[in-house]
Amino acid sequence: MTSQSSARDIKENLHNMVGFQLPVLNWFKRATSRLTIGNKIKLGYALALGIAVLGSGFGIVIGEYYHEHALEQEEDAREEMYFFSSLETSILRVEIQEQILTDLGNQPSQWQKEYEIFVRHIEDVRRGWNEFKESEGHTKDNPGMEKPGEIEKSRYIIQKYQVFLENYLNEIAGIFKDLKNSNRTPQELESIQKRLLQLNNKEQFLELDSLADQISELTAFSSAEYEEAEEKGWMAEKLRLATIFTSILLSATIAIVLSLYTSKVIAQPIQEIAAMAEEIGKSGNFHLQVPVTTKDEVGVLATAFNTLIQRIATRNQELLQKNQQLVETHKQLNQNIQNLKETQAQLIQTEKMSSLGQMLAGIAHEINNPVNFISNNLDYVNRYIKDMIELVHIYQEEYPNSTTAIQDKKEEIEFDFLIEDLPKILDSMKMGSERIRQIVQSLKNFSRRDKNEIKSVNIHEGIDSTLLILNHQLKHGIEVVKHYGELPLIECYPAQLNQVFMNIIQNAIDALNSESDLPNKQITIATEIGGFNQIRVRIEDNASGIPPEIQYKIFDPFFTTKDVGKGTGLGLSISYQIIKHHQGKIELKSDLGQGTEFAIALPIKQRMANS
Questions:
Q1: Where do the domains of the chain lie?
Q2: Around Cβ 436, how many Cβ atoms within 10 Å?
Q3: The domain over range 66-238 is classified in CATH as 1.20.120
């Protein structure tokens, strides 16, 4: 705001100077009265260019100074955020690990492993807290960079929690000070467990949670510092541009004033030069030259003018080149920003899918072991029961006249129905175990960890695994119609494609669930050969569709139409990048009231697509 008002003041002052009656202009006349015409013109241009150069240099120096200051503040804020997040995470891990140790008292080997993890977390908390105290929450060295209230908040945390945390750490150290090796007896572990239970109370957890929350608030302070530093960086850039603009404006204004002054004091021959200058100004043709017919001051002036025109032509060409460079730099900057957003979105989504994959893989492993045990023994059970039934039949044939007690017992247990129903129950159990096997296999397929390796896979298995994961959402009135074509194995990154199918089908489910009055909710999935070295996958829903005015933004990072808390806006952006990474294409087709379709084209062989 200050630079803009200064520019307006300069404009007004220079406008008043055009009347040639200001003291400054009179002084200029007296100072240059003994100079030749050529020297006067040179002096005028030197003055104008000098102001432009000095003003631009001053603007660059000032802007660079404030920009460096902003970068220092950004780095300080970034270090604070990392430190606070690490300390908060260590505190929360200590709470979790303490609970785990409390629950593992009767498992010495597992207890020892968890104890070593617990010791590492305790050391992390101790180191982090000592650093926090010594640096007063990273505010001691650079108090001028901190937000209002941050220093007070750090000192408040130290004052409030220092005694509690040190006592807690000392108590923990006291409990484990005699634990020198991993060969602990159950009685010793039980004693340690009891002491942990005494320490592990609600007040302690509330105090630790409160400390973590307070540190989280310091993270918010650091985040605000970072945003403020970014804003200062932009303001420094604006100040630099404003200073350069003002100096150039002042230089141009002085040049105009000097040209008016020259036109008044120089005779008719100079008017020809002025006319030529006007012609050059109108046409932009810097190849025009003023004829030099004399050797006096007018001739010298004409020669200087011609030289000046040549220099202006050179400068104009340089400016055009610089402008083109600036345009290209601006485009590159926008592309870098877009790439940064996409990379950030991909990192977030990749981390989320990695966690999901690990969880599913663990669940599949844990389920698979007991299911294998049940399934492998069902055949033996079936054979044993058949043998027993056959033995009973032999008994009945050999001893048809059973006692009254046996007859009463047979009627009580409905023996004939039992003999008839027992094989059916075994068959049902076998079908159930087989179904669980299929579910486990689908979980394994979905949670593939070969994200960085190209595999030849059946794409239908990935789609079916995704549908199985989302099956609990599909049970609420949504019908899935599959039209699978005869497809060959395709070369791809299976886990990444599963992520694409998950994102698109989940969006379709959300769209259908948002329309409670829609009858016959349906998702259609079709696959087919799409041409040479290409397959197509179409996923379509019969919801209300996507408005045309937002369809072009549907693949942008962080764009979402869902309510707050129900979507991150990363799914389709990540899906677009994954399909692009596979040398494929993904297209959206949606009409209001007609539903939405995503059409995916993928190469069958990646090597052929790259060539």
A1: 66-238, 358-446, 455-610
A2: 17
A3: yes
